[in-house]
Amino acid sequence: MQKNVIIVCEDLFGLEVYSILNEINMYVARERLSDDTYDVKGFISNNPQPFGMVDNQSKPILGNIDSWQPIDDEQYVMGIKDPENKEYAAKVLKDKGAKFLTILTPWTLTPDRTCIGEGCVISNYSFKDGAVFDEFVTMINVMAGAAHVGAYTTIQAFANITNADIGKKVRIGSHAFIMEHIKIGDNSRIYPGSMVYANVKPNQKMAGIPANRMKYRKLVEEA
What we know:
Radius of gyration: 17 Å
CATH class of the largest domain: Mainly Beta
Mean pLDDT: 89
Shape: globular
Number of strands: 19
CATH architecture of the largest domain: 3 Solenoid
Strand content: 25-35%
Distance between the termini: 35 Å
Number of domains: 2
Structural class: alpha/beta
CATH topology of the largest domain: UDP N-Acetylglucosamine Acyltransferase, domain 1
Number of helices: 2
């Protein structure tokens, strides 16, 4: 069954999510797994400016998040990586009746006792029994093990969070490493390439090897 979807985004990360949906379509067709495919109608964004830098973009910007009115035959995919903006967009659209899909790539190994919430976008290596991902978690190529990941958290490529307890609205950069059974507090930020060996309190920004609390904001925000 073909699903009509619109990607909710704020920057070029929305195009990465678009690519994931296209990869799923090709994989399903090649392996003859099912007839389920995604037909992306376009994007909605409160910040469409970055899309002007993309050549040959085949899908249009349909409108902005604040004024968009969902209709019955459309479903939505979350393409925002900033946790605060992700939460805002999800609540605005859900209050108007939008229905968000959970996207899980078919090449991901998922045990029966894995719990995945609404609106997640997960392209991953593998999970273990007991993994829990709350609503609107975004993870791209992440080693997760039996981790628990709180709502609206984003974990970027090649991070390792095996068996950790990650709070709500956390952002973990690419190639970061979280030791097993470590707790990361809500609203925290772990910068790319950092190694976290101890629990992190809420609202902390951590960077380095080993990761320490940032005293001066000199690091460039990741794209």
